[in-house]
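protien #1 (seq + structre)
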Amino acid sequence: MKLRTHHVFTFGLLTLLDSVLLSDSIVIIVIAGVISVVTNNVIDTLGHEIKGEYISRTPTTHTIPRSMGWGLLTSLPVILALHFLFHSPIELILVTALDGVVAGLSHMILDIFTEKGIYHKVDGKWRRIALAHYSYNNPFANGLATLLGILMLFASLKF
């Protein structure tokens, strides 16, 4: 999927999750936005390499456990700022850590529907798994994921 699709989908998902777990506030919207952008940018920047004329995904970030780890790692500066600068309650800090993990996982959820899929290990070797084989820039797939992200964002406003 396109990076902007990842941003919108993850932002909607995190905002919905946060609004269910915590009370509605502008803080959770800002945190969800920051974590969405940073995590998806890190996963795509570190998880792609150039092979000739093509850009290829690597297992560095495009596995389920590693993407969740990268998400948690990218949420760490936000967690530290919440704790040391703003003295936020522990609930907000824990939900922010959860946001990082979910942001990494949401990236894999979208990428598994692309033609190149994501990686998993089989007999010690990296293999790709893909469910729908859409190209990364398929307008239908990107539009649907973006629409789902927007719907989740609006649904979060109802909680």
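ok now protien #2
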Amino acid sequence: MDKGLQRTNITKIQPNITFLQLNTAQHNFFTTLRNKVYNISKNLLYCRMKKQDITISQSNLLTKARYNFTKIEKRALYFIIQEVRRQFIDKVDGQKDLFNDLVIKMDTSKLKGTDTQLREIYKSMKSLRRKSIWLEDDEQVLEVGYINYFHHLKRSGTLEVQVSNKILPYLVQLAEQFTTYSLTVAIALKTKYSQRFYEYCSQFRSTGFMYITIDELRQQMMLEGKYIMYAKFRQNVIDSAQKELEELYKNDECDLYFKYTEDRTGRSVRGLRITVITKKNEEAAKDNLRPEDKMHYIRTWLGSWLNAKKRPKNQEWINMVMKHQQKYAENIDLLYDRLMRMQKKNAKESYGAFARHIIEEDFLNNEPKQVTLEEGITQAEKENKELTSEEEQQAIKELNKNLKG
């Protein structure tokens, strides 16, 4: 050891003495010590995060929102959401009003993880501040940024961000339904597509399934102009996310993954039928769809075919149909099968009219007939042949006019 360093009595160094006032050997000693302490702290932090599975939640509207964030930006958002929940939900004396912006101190070592430099954090936070998120439901449209500013004192281990009060309601549990997912898993995922699919799957963890159209998927991920060919989109977005989540799940590093089948019309793919697989439902996922799964598909199909979002009367009709099906649950399998067969034999533009005709004639006309699935299939096949008659086609045209009106 250097003699000059040996003579130094560290306990006598005054607090107001800076590193620059020490001799070169002392400066090197403290620099090395500081770096070692930082590296040890970073490794301990990472190990603690691997052992402790931190759960965070966010509004479902936020999960389905339209945004395009990088992996590092999403990592920052996960920590913001965690802190917001701590302040509003877990902490007794935390901030409770939604009218003021929220200032959050973030640990830079948590943001950096094991694969990021500090300059990349600055670049990502700058990009995050400039980005806006588009939120839309039946009641409103909101475009807002996640943070108003970020500030970092270079010698400090924390970075300060301010979260807009406009987005706070979506970051706390103000909605009846919310997405719960693991922070440890979320920040470890390699791609933003894996992160987004992990959020989707967490949202539908309890039901074990979800349906999303390709158009909705492109819109929510802001990929309308990228991967135009579906094969490329599937390879780079869907399959890459599915593969990463499944590998982590099999290595006990992730709590879920998904499988999917394509909802096709001819050669085109309209949507994905996604099965969410967890330890609890892993065996059940091997079986056929459950009644509640089929109810979900029926509602989704009808909502799409009848343009329910823009036509409130059609939405009321769909709600009535679903309540009727819950009352006569023994007919769910039959209706699901009839609608599946209808899609295979008719043009897409007539789905709404055909579906309404089938439901009103055979499922809403007093109590539905108690028939076996085989009898229902025979009737469906017969019905499709009969509907080619001139009179029935005219009836379908009239139904289409009413739906569009």
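The chain has 17 helices and ten strands.
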